[in-house]
Amino acid sequence: MNIAQPTFAVTAPILLDAANLSCVKQDRVLFEQLSLHLKPGELLQIKGKNGAGKSSLLRILSGLAQPDEGQLQYLAQPLPAALSDYAANLCFIGHQSGIHEQLTAIENLQFWQAASDLHIQDEFTLLAELGLAGLEDIPCRMLSAGQQRRVSLARLWATSAQIWILDEPFTALDQSAIVSLQQHFIAHLQRGGAIILTTHQPLSIEYHALRALEIHYRW
Ligand SMILES: Nc1ncnc2c1ncn2[C@@H]1O[C@H](COP(=O)(O)OP(=O)(O)OP(=O)(O)O)[C@@H](O)[C@H]1O
Q: Where is the ABC transporter domain (predicted)?
């Protein structure tokens, strides 16, 4: 996938700045002195073996968990003080699909709209775009894993948040859905969005502002 360079300035402000983060779980240091930053138009892939600490890092970067050490800043304002501004500009989708399985796809979209910044003009059109035509009105527990993941990812087609933090977004998706999602990432980046994600699959994106950070498994 060959991508043109976005036109906005490379001097854009740092959206998210993490300095000297450390995280300890069950007496194991997952990472320490970990620093990163994210600017508009950048995609940062967090790599590492199972259990290395990728999800733990994403939860810290999302403001859902506190680091054992280190600081986070959103637009040069320290968290947690800037948390509400940060949360308003963030779309976090975790490893679990986050859908309510007893609700239909439409009802899940309506729930997310009521609870967040999502604005969906026509839920049926959006779900059709995601390959879910005809499946809008059945409880999500009756959908396949990949279909449930598509419902979950529909938020990325409706959010106005600039920063997306995504834990294993490609899980359970077929190849065409993976391609479509990667194209959607590129469109977001070219509009000045920014993405941090984990994936065990290689990204098939050629993009000038793609960076990777590996968390090495520590015993
Ligand atoms: N809430 C928690 N309480 C205790 N230990 C935890 C907790 N969350 C994560 N861990 C531990 O921290 C380690 C890292 O987990 P994490 O989910 O961050 O890894 P990961 O790199 O995302 O792995 P995977 O690639 O398998 O998703 C694991 O050993 C896990 O057991």
A: 16-215
- Do the domain assignments include residue 110? yes
| Ligand 1 centroid, distance to 72 Cα (angstroms) | 21
The verdict on the CB of residue 56 being under 6 Å from ligand 1 is: yes
Domain that holds residue 181: 1-89+162-219
Sign of the four-CA dihedral 44, 45, 48, 54: positive
Model ipTM value? 0.96
- Residue to substitute in 21, 24, 26 for testing ligand 1 pocket (most ligand atoms within 8 angstroms of CB): 26
Reported as a single tens digit per residue, the pLDDT across 11-68 is: 789 999 999 999 999 999 999 999 999 999 999 999 999 999 999 999 999 999 999 9
Same domain, 176 and 205: yes
Helix (H, G, I), strand (E, B) or coil at 25: strand
